[in-house]
Write a structure and sequence with these properties.
Radius of gyration: 24 Å
Mean pLDDT: 78
Strand order of the largest sheet: 1-5-6-2
Strand content: 5-15%
Largest sheet: 4 strands, mixed
Oligomer: single chain
Amino acid sequence: MPSSIGASGSGTVNTSEREPLLGSGEDTESVSSKKYASVDVRAAAIVDEDDLEMRLEDVPDYKRQLGLLSTSSLIFNRVIGTGIFATPSVILRSSGSVGLSLIMWLLGATVALCGTAVYMELGTGLPRNGGEKNYLEFIYKRPKLLVTCIYAIYAVLTGWQAASCSVFGEYVLHALDPSHPLSPNKARLAGVICITVALFLHGAALKTGLRIQNALGLFKLFVLIVIALSGLASLLRVKGFRLENPPRNFEWDRMWEGSLAGGVNAFVTGLFNVIWCFIGYSNANYALAEVRDPVRTLKRAAPLAMLSVTLVYLLANIAYLAVVDKDEIVRSGRIVAALHFGRLWGVGAERAVSVIVALSTLGNILAVLFTHGRVVQELGREGVLPFSSIFASNEPFNAPFAGLFEQWLVTTSLVLLVPPGDTYLFMLNLSSYPLALINMFVSGGLVFIHLPDSWTPKRLRELRTSYAWRPPFRAWTPVVLFFFVSNIFLVVVPLIPPARGYRVYEALPYWLHVLVAWIISLVGVVYWYVWVVWLPRRGGYVLVRDWIRDDDGTSRRVVRKVKVS
């Protein structure tokens, strides 16, 4: 049977950290009460005193299977998905010029590297599974469970794989017939088939799915290396890579032609696309309980992976521009990688590369579905979601099929319902904008913790001191501040109308992804109020949250109802 334990931020949990959460059963134990805003938060005496010294990070050795290479690969393979193959045309169109597009890639890399430092500090200070959810709960403790509910709604309603499914469909059709325009409906159908295959691989044939996922991960690295080397060879006029009429993209006057033609809104839309290509720098933070020596490993693995990604991305973009003309890239949609090889070696090579990129996209879809299906399962295991017992289950195939199916359902709905011309960009922005919101609140809280006493009002010093924040790795405060400000910029600027004559979407309003993201946040607030405030008051109980230790030695948070005596 699971046993109750306690923990604090430094490794042991004290009773004051216990907080309400939803369970299936009810308890009639007495509780002590405190009032926070409109929520009654009660701590129940359900933990044995001998358990209070047990460490949250005590995880069985057999579960700590990730070393330096595996942890670096976890980040590297998550970051390199479809973006570098699919977004250069969108970014070039948003920037208006070759030179500004390269600057946008450098800006995106800078934001990502600062984000890496922020999440390294948070990961080494709280080396647990869960990522952003843990950090938001640690920083924003009142009202209880509010950030947990908002995060849960984002995890459930955001179709993280939808943009990749769109890219998969387009590359598959391009491989079948490069000479004809793509059919949007056929591309969407191919994307739905892809995510359905991924569902059954990870939901019903887990070992086979993991083998395929790991094998496909090699394709991404292989394709990018070949793209980078072939582009450099073309620039250097190496025999076999020499073009009869090479593009003039790097001539100084032409490099900056058309800069900011779409205005600030277009620039930020492009920057969202760049940042989406770097999403994944916090991926290891979701699985730190499974990493050997997590603090030391994360401090080495995260910079290694992200610096490698930055170098590969910049070389790949230079390679595209060395081979394909700017106007052709802008018109290419999401198939610029295929055009790159088509110009060098003909239609046969273009088809071959389309197949390889489609397969690498499938690998990314498998990886993201694998991760986020388990995020939904963990939210079910904690009791945060309705029908928690269903989402928490590994039945019937010893895999989180319910969580995987939920992600499949949301992703498929987005792929089929969003207008064809806007499918990819809308789904990409709908993934990027919520992450900017989450990063803004995470980094903003860390900035507050970093502030010196002389900069903090007296009434807030006690709150800041209560965090007792002493992580093994501490990011430079200006880096945290830059990451915070950059995410404020990314959250606010999309509300500014684009320049006259420029359209973010073909058929949708430019602000739609922003509205949807804030509606999701509002749904999270409503869900919190109903679940944590309204239902307990009507039912005469409170929700109590505690740490428990499962039979295998791992720790997790759970929920149960406690009757008010």
